[in-house]
Design a protein that fits this description.
four-stranded antiparallel beta sheet, 166 residues
């Protein structure tokens, strides 16, 4: 009986110490469910205004409205395809996109090269050139490098390139 009390007391002290340590840590990031919720809102196309209301991150942070685009069926020789990915700096410091890497020479990226202030928004415009690739489905990935607290972000475009119908 005495041993049981000691074990219960030890567990209670351990839990109390863990809780007080967690409360003393500075808040840098939202918890995992908040991050997943924000990601779901962005992928659902939630307006940027709601994302930029107040800084949610300690440091610069890039938040995209969406990170994926499907062009559907496109003509291989039908001309270049463009898509714009909107983003906002919902962090507490200016955001700087340092570089953008595309997965092939059939993709080009146009983006802002100067700092984006807190709450400010902009776009990354991607151009896909289907004539540079063979017919068939495509899935292209673009890596966005910045000073965002959560590191590199991926943007993807996909679709199906078809030849001339006879």
């Amino acid at each position: 009986m005495k041993m049981k009390r000691i074990v219960v007391l030890a567990v209670a002290l351990l839990l109390g110490a863990m809780l007080s340590t967690a409360q003393e840590r500075p808040h840098q990031h939202s918890n995992r469910s908040d991050v997943n919720h924000e990601k779901a809102k962005r992928e659902a196309g939630i307006e940027l205004d709601s994302l930029a209301m107040q800084p949610k991150w300690d440091g610069a942070h890039i938040a995209f409205v969406t990170t994926k685009h499907n062009f559907g069926e496109v003509q291989r020789k039908g001309g270049d395809l463009k898509v714009r990915f909107e983003y906002v700096n919902d962090g507490s410091e200016p955001l700087i996109i340092t570089r953008i890497a595309t997965s092939c020479t059939c993709m080009r990226a146009d983006y802002r090269r100067r700092p984006l202030d807190v709450g400010e928004r902009d776009v990354i415009e991607l151009t896909y050139e289907p004539h540079k690739m063979e017919e068939g489905s495509f899935h292209k990935v673009v890596q966005v490098y910045s000073n965002s607290v959560d590191g590199m972000h991926l943007l993807t475009v996909s679709g199906n390139s078809v030849g001339q119908r006879r």
